[in-house]
Specification:
By secondary structure, the protein is α+β, with helices and mostly antiparallel strands. Helix content is 29%, strand content 11%.
């Protein structure tokens, strides 16, 4: 907000001349002056911001289960939402089985056990 004039000269790439007052002399700033090694964005993988996943509140878990059962969430996304729900359900030993027989979220080994859990609810 304080800059009144900025000048970019093609003869000086990476240098910006800035004036804070119309009557003052310009200040030259090198915008390409970087310290350290450049980052190769094609191979760079950022580190994890958290050590563990956040648990969900029980009411949010129930809402996600209802959305999956009702078909509001397409079956191709069931695996993702099931993994999110299993993080919160690990606290209560509760598991989810979707109403559809989709290959994305149903493990053949756990289907019977999950159906029993849902019947008990």
């Amino acid at each position: 907000m304080k800059i009144r004039e900025a000048h970019f000269d093609p003869a000086k790439p990476g240098i910006v001349s800035i004036k804070y007052n119309y009557n003052s002399n310009p200040i030259e700033v090198n915008v390409k002056d970087k310290r350290g090694r450049p980052v190769n964005l094609t191979t760079y993988t950022p580190g994890s911001a958290y050590n563990a996943k956040f648990p969900l509140a029980e009411n949010k878990i129930e809402d996600l289960k209802d959305l999956i059962r009702s078909g509001a969430i397409p079956s191709k996304y069931h695996a993702f939402y099931k993994s999110v729900i299993d993080i919160g359900a690990a606290q209560t030993n509760d598991h989810l089985q979707c109403s559809e027989d989709c290959a994305d979220c149903c493990d053949n080994n756990d289907v019977e056990q999950e159906e029993i859990v849902l019947e008990n609810q």
